[in-house]
Specification:
The chain is an alpha+beta fold. The protein has one domain (2-23, 31-131). The protein is 26% helix and 30% strand. The chain is built from 2 helices and 6 strands. It has helices spanning 2-20, 65-79; strands spanning 48-52, 56-61, 83-85, 92-98, 103-113, 124-131. The chain has a 6-stranded antiparallel beta sheet with strand order 1-2-6-5-4-3. The protein is globular, with a radius of gyration of 15 Å.
């Protein structure tokens, strides 16, 4: 039973990565628009912002996934004072206190390792999700 649950969680995470991999479109009735909250920096050094909305963003980087994760921990935990929630096989999940609302906002990152190509040297893709507390 535990093995089935682990496979289900991995599949759900993979679905998030696959569905979020293409740039967002703001046309028609289903697209999102806006910009990622400036209070929660994205790992764009090095990196390229592919798409963003008020609640999601996609960044590709030439840094390995482990390097991006370490940079996010330093940024969110050390510099911003957020709390990282821990769990086995979980993406990076941070709870950040928002004094304007007196609640904690959640910033979640999922990762995908990529094979670099001659036209795209990226070796990782980072999908960011923001949930206001």
């Amino acid at each position: 039973m535990n093995r089935f649950a682990a496979i289900g969680i991995s599949s759900a995470t993979l679905a998030i990565v696959v569905l979020s991999a293409s740039p967002a479109s703001a046309s028609g009735g289903g697209g999102s628009s806006g910009t990622w909250p400036a209070a929660f920096p994205l790992p764009t050094d090095p990196g390229t912002l592919l798409s963003q909305s008020e609640t999601t963003a996609v960044v590709r980087s030439t840094d390995q996934v482990s390097v991006v994760q370490a940079k996010l921990d330093d940024l969110y935990v050390t510099k911003l004072g957020c709390t990282r929630t821990l769990g086995v096989n979980r993406p990076r999940d941070y709870l950040c206190y928002n004094p304007a609302t007196d609640k904690s906002d959640e910033v979640l990152f999922t990762f995908a390792a990529l094979d670099a190509t001659p036209t795209d040297p990226s070796v990782s893709e980072i999908n960011a999700f923001y949930v206001r507390g």
